[in-house]
User: What shape does this take?
Amino acid sequence: MENPFELILEKLNGIEKAIAKLNTVEPIVAANHPMNIKDLSTYIKMSRSSIYKMTSLNDIPHYKSGRKLYFKKHEIDEWIFSNRIKTNDDIKKEALKYINKKESEGKLLE
Assistant: This one.
């Protein structure tokens, strides 16, 4: 039977290595500096091939200089948050607003 303390030390060493890997991730470039494909991939946690596909379809805001692609962080943030999904409450409010508008238009026509 293995020594339980050795097993614990082994697991702790594994945890330390995993934490060290997490701490070595390169920081994202400052907001006012352009990101390259590698930076963007890290930032939005998406594969480079998916990003290349989106750029070829012009689905993502980007810049091209020669063969290199660049991205502005604030434009990427706007792009990510531009397709907000409406909540049920948002939809109910819009429906009520529409009904009230139609009712008031109907009263004006009478």
